[in-house]
Design a protein that fits this description.
Elements (H helix, E strand, L loop, with lengths): L14 H14 L6 E8 L25 H14 L1 E7 L10 H10 L3 E8 L7 H9 L4 E7 L4 H13 L4 E5 L21 H9 L7 E4 L2 E3 L7 H5 L8 E3 L7 H10 L32 H9 L1
Helix pairs in contact: 1-8, 2-3, 3-4
Length: 301
Amino acid sequence: MFEKEEELKTTDDKSGRYRRLYRKKRMEYQRNPLVIPSLEVWPQKKCNLCCQHCVRLVPYAQEKEMDVAKSIRDLERVFLCASVKHLLIGGGNPFLCEELGELIRFCAEEPKAGEICVRVNGTMFPGDDVTEELRRCGGRVRVVIDRYQATAKEADRLYAYLTEKNISCTMRDLSEPGDGEWKKTGGPFQQYLHFETARFVYADCILKGHLTLADGLLAACPRGIHAKTVFSLEENPWEYVRADSLADDARSRARLAVCMDKTLYKDYCQHCLGLSDENPYTVLPGEQYAEAFERIKEKML
């Protein structure tokens, strides 16, 4: 199905289905609370690595460090209308954010936040203020280190450092191919897929419903954050929510529920091969682009 994609540009009008889904969700959340299973917040859109198969499309997008104070205000709006079971501070590499400690402190003190993780690539140490904030939080905030083949020594040193500082941390060993999160999903040159293929790709994708917040915008999955800049897609109003529009009401809860609904594929799925067992393209985690890519990247931006 991947190799023999028909060269069709036909799009699927999902607006009617989205409207019906919204009416249903609005009735459901008139009185019921909304629980977000997974929310990833980005304090910036930067990374010190340039992974060929970055599912978050960071190497292809314009680097940006957001105002952490605004990110906190955006999270406050989300927590007005929902609780979060698993909160992940991610993006590129969060340790590049100078004001990360403020975001960690806010998340740790938020009663509606469940498990809290900071996910890093293991190649750099946190600043002294971030280290102190992580230590102060005790086990409330855990650092998750991705250990790639090319950066294994750096990751091991970071793990030893955090352990010595009594900071809760775990290592995800991704030094070999085979991890479900590391497949060739497609960059800006990914062939446009027919919507029937997009449905197929989306059906078992492990990122489905992984709500992501960056720069005031909520998307149903982390790839959606860069869909406009990388794929030149218009933002489907059913698949994105502006954080500053949220309030403690049924409308806001319904809008979030529709955004992360798992029954309808997203527009940007037509530029993605998905993360599922059906995707045959397993790749080496953390494999870096050659230096020549920087010149290509400059032409793309």
